[in-house]
Amino acid sequence: MGLSRVRAVFFDLDNTLIDTAGASRRGMLEVIKLLQSKYHYKEEAEIICDKVQVKLSKECFHPYNTCITDLRTSHWEEAIQETKGGAANRKLAEECYFLWKSTRLQHMTLAEDVKAMLTELRKEVRLLLLTNGDRQTQREKIEACACQSYFDAVVVGGEQTEEKPAPSIFYYCCNLLGVQPGDCVMVGDTLETDIQGGLNAGLKATVWINKNGIVPLKSSPVPHYMVSSVLELPALLQSIDCKVSMST
């Protein structure tokens, strides 16, 4: 790590600043209730939601071929047909998708302690939000959690030529803030994108948010630091800056 103080922090959004996984689960529970109460599904309701979850985890989205709404409605349509058989039911699939999506967005909030942390940090360093994903989906989340005002800049991977872990998107972020890679710290929950990307771009440090105490694979990228909550970041940044002071 270079001998300069931290000048900028790049934050991932999903499951770093907001509980996207938890919000998605709340959405699935609402769909299960809908299918059981309105359409009298029994255990099939949970099977359908499990199938959709798998499809979401394997999703390959190409904005030139389709829109995210069509793609995700198709996930529901396929899951319903695979579970219940019979003809495809696009109308029911749309009802499930929009209920899941709207519930999910309602539960995507920035916690008060996270807001306070960002506000304090921004007095000392530049802050940038760097999130992978489809433009429409990520912009809807950013609006839902009202986080834009806490950052000096917001960069959505789906609006750029390359996403994390490509170094180019990190260099773009550095240029936006007028800083060098060696001035910056990347904070995120995904080793393969957030941490690998920070390493690829030669950032000063990478911080892995490991909420669930996961033991990474031996082949996984190795972060400079690991914390269990994003709220541990201010103390960690202080210790990084202390090391710089002692070195100089």
Key terms:
248 residues, 9 helices, alpha/beta, 49% helix, Four Helix Bundle (Hemerythrin (Met), subunit A), 6-stranded parallel β-sheet, single chain, Rossmann fold
Number of domains: 2
> Would you identify the regions where 5 or more consecutive residues have pLDDT less than 50?
none
CATH topology of the largest domain: Rossmann fold
- Helix/sheet category: alpha/beta
Q: Largest sheet, if any?
A: 6 strands, parallel
Task: Write the topology of this structure.
Blueprint: E1 8-11, H1 20-37, H2 44-57, H3 68-84, H4 90-106, H5 112-121, E2 126-131, H6 135-144, E3 153-156, H7 167-177, E4 184-188, H8 191-200, E5 205-209, E6 225-227, H9 233-247
Parallel strand pairs: 1-2, 1-4, 2-3, 4-5, 5-6
Short overview:
The protein is an alpha/beta fold. The chain has nine helices and six strands. It folds into two domains: 8-19 and 109-242, 3-Layer(aba) Sandwich (Rossmann fold), CATH 3.40.50.1000; 21-107, Up-down Bundle (Four Helix Bundle (Hemerythrin (Met), subunit A)).
